[in-house]
Amino acid sequence: MPQIDPRTVVLLAGVMSSFMALIMFFLQRSYPSSIKGLGEWGVALLLVTVGSTLAFGLGTFPNFFSITLPRILFPAGLFLGYVGAQRFFGETPRYWPWLTLIAITVAVHMWFTFGEPNFAARLRVSGALSVCLFVAFVNLLRKQGLNSFAKILTMGVLLSMCAIVGMRLLTALIWPVGVNIYDSSPLHMVYLSALSVFILLLSVSIVLLAAERMHTEMAYLASHDSLTNALTRRHMNEVCAMELERSQRNGHNMALLIMDLDHFKQVNDTHGHQRGDRVLVDFVRKVNTLLRRPDQLGRFGGEEFVVLLPETSLSEALSVAERIRSACAAADTEPCCTVSIGVATNSQGNDTVDSLIARADAAMYRAKTKGRNRVETAE
To answer: Which sequence positions are flagged as catalytic?
Structure first.
């Protein structure tokens, strides 16, 4: 591959990185703020772009700008990519250990540039740092679980880049490595070309990670109430329909609880809507602590909520409803709302979700009529 100009390879890597950096910045502006790390990834690719541009000027720019500065920017970009991944996956980055390691590497690199010029030593030092960052990145991704195509692709790219750099370190101990990054030997050209391609692949895989997260966030928002995080009415109806079909097929019971907070309008009128919202959020949190893992809680609108209890008899459902009622009645915070609950099970073979909800709803209104802060069963 000696006919390929190594400067062109380095420049193309910088151009591709610049395009991907622009994509990252556009994604950061258009994606919700809950998706973290996109800004760090964009800056990381921008550092690679600047480093590649400066390295392209080797022989034209002073050595500090064409050799030392790129060797600062490249690991800094890789480190920022790792920081972005930590923030993306909800981990708190640890800066000082890595910044200290990068500073030591840069100092050693500068010695082998100006004090005792040695390209092979510079290659080994910077390569060792890159391997450390790749390994940390891989370990972070491994802890998240390889449960999607984007994660698998990212893991594959990172392992490939780690292997490429590792092989280059090994070969540098066996064969000559030239005098600078633009050595035109076939082995060095394979190394440069492979890294350039995998920088692009890593950028693509990161974009796919962000797209997957966006899809997950949109799916969650479509199925969950934005205030309380309970299931939306539409999604709750779908879940109830599936569970009712399964229960009828297997001859099992399921139960529905219709719950309505008592005198909730007075809370809004007296304390304001923001305080009322806080009451709803606290109610959902409290109810969730009393439910099993398979149980589902949905918000049907306003202060009305529905609980689905799979594989649950009427007596068991009444016990759950009473625990919820007691927990609300015993709350010592102000404002405090009690709750009226109607309970229904699929005792009839021709039950539908609508008929089951209607029976539970009628029971709930009976609880309201009888004085509120009660549990009533469907007739």
So the answer is: 303
Tokens, residue 357: 């909800």
- Do you know the residue count of the chain? 379
Whole-angstrom distance, CA of residue 77 vs CA of residue 48: 6
Tokens of 255: 């139960």
For residue 271, how many C-alpha atoms fall within 13 Å in the half-sphere facing its CB?
15
Q: What is the identity of the amino acid at 323?
A: R
Spatial distance between the Cα atoms of 356 and 255, rounded to a whole number of angstroms? 9
In sequence order, what are the residues at sequence separation of 6 or more whose Cβ sits closer than 8 angstroms to the Cβ of residue 330? Answer: none
Helix H or strand E encompassing 342: strand 339-345
Q: Within the chain, what is the greatest distance between any pair of CA atoms?
A: 92
Name the nearest CA neighbour of 112 among 26, 155, 56, 172: 172
d(CA 307, CA 344): 11
Torsion of CA 310, 311, 315, 321, to 10 degrees: -20
Handedness of CA 337, 342, 345, 350 (dihedral sign): negative
**SS3 category, 305:** strand
Amino acid at 241: A
pLDDT digits (tens, 9 = 90+) for 145-158: 988 999 999 999 99
- Residue 6 and residue 190 in contact, taking contact as beta carbons nearer than 8 Å: no
Specify which residues 344 forms β-bridges with. 256
Structure tokens at 315: 């007596």
H/E stretch holding 129: helix 119-144
* CA neighbor of 170 nearest in space, from 214, 132, 123: 123
Residue 286 exposure: Cα atoms within 13 Å on the Cβ side: 23
Residue 38 burial (10 A CB sphere; 0-12, 13-18, 19+): buried
pLDDT confidence bin for 1, thresholds 50/70/90: very low
Tokens of 82: 């790792």
Q: At 379, is the secondary structure helix, strand, or coil?
A: coil
Name the average pLDDT for the chain. 90
Distance, CA of 165 to CA of 149 (rounded, Å) = 24
pLDDT tens digits for 87-100?
999 999 999 999 99
Q: Can you give the pTM of this predicted structure? A: 0.80
